[in-house]
């Protein structure tokens, strides 16, 4: 993976040589850092431009969070690149974004999680998770922390909406699910398709279900399809015939009561 990132970086105009490392300058916080040497005749390369070019070629989690410009490689005594001597990225190596404070409770809550996880003091609503040092492993941790805070987070949403404002907006839209009201009244004696907004059944199908319920329609609160896990459990139950695969019995014998 690092070799692919290096190859894409080296292919950009103005880049003579490149090297990509996974650095862990903070314990437990690895991040991708790119080092590059410009062509002698090339004009100064902007870090933000490099990142934009890389984002057009690679998925966000493969794009380095920092780009360090070097005049020459530090070398070992035998002439190889001394990776341990490569400098820690400074602020100039990070692509800058105009700061705009988070807006609303959800953005503020997400910003607090980002700040703690990425060890970044100030997180703005335009900031990009992967630009701040995030990567695929930290993304998993981020989603877990967001879920602990009651947010309906998904790692696919993060990859698709990696800026703070966009992520918060996606979470907010996803959490506003309108559940249809139960239309079957307590005194209902006949159930028709228009009373079942969660499932598509014709009248014959509804009548078969109601006939299988003791007491008929008055004892039916609602009808809706099984979820995938429920469907799997029900399938194995039906396939087992007279045996119940989910009722297990075991007998243990002991030599004495001690």
TrEMBL record:
Chain coiled-coil ranges: none
GO biological process: amino acid activation for nonribosomal peptide biosynthetic process; monocarboxylic acid biosynthetic process; secondary metabolite biosynthetic process
Gene Ontology cellular component terms for the protein in this record: cytoplasm
Gene Ontology MF annotations: phosphopantetheine binding
Keywords: Phosphopantetheine, Phosphoprotein
Family annotation (SMART domains): PKS_PP
PROSITE patterns: CARRIER (PS50075), PHOSPHOPANTETHEINE (PS00012)
Domain (Carrier) ranges: 101-175
SUPFAM superfamilies in the record: Acetyl-CoA synthetase-like, ACP-like
Protein known as: Carrier domain-containing protein
């Amino acid at each position: 993976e690092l070799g692919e990132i290096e190859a894409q970086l080296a292919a950009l105009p103005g880049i003579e040589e490149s090297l990509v490392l996974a650095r862990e300058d903070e314990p437990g916080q690895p991040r991708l850092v790119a080092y590059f040497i410009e062509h002698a005749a090339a004009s100064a390369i902007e870090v933000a431009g490099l990142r934009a070019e890389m984002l057009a070629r690679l998925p966000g989690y493969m794009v380095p969070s920092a780009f360090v410009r070097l005049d020459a490689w530090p070398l070992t005594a035998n002439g190889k690149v001394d990776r341990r001597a490569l400098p820690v990225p400074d602020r100039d190596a990070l692509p800058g974004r105009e700061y705009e404070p988070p807006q609303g409770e959800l953005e503020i809550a997400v910003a607090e999680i980002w700040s703690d996880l990425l060890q970044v003091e100030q997180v703005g609503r335009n900031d990009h998770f992967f630009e701040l040092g995030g990567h695929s492993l930290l993304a998993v941790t981020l989603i877990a922390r967001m879920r602990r805070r009651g947010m309906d987070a998904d790692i696919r949403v993060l990859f698709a909406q990696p800026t703070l404002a966009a992520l918060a907006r996606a979470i907010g839209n996803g959490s506003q699910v309108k559940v249809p009201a139960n239309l079957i009244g307590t005194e209902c004696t006949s159930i028709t398709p228009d009373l079942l907004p969660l499932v598509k059944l014709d009248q014959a199908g509804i009548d078969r279900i109601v006939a299988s319920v003791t007491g008929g329609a008055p004892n039916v609160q609602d009808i809706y399809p099984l979820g995938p896990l429920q469907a799997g459990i029900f399938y194995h139950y039906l396939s087992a015939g007279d045996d119940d695969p989910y009722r297990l019995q075991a007998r243990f014998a002991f030599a004495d009561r001690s």
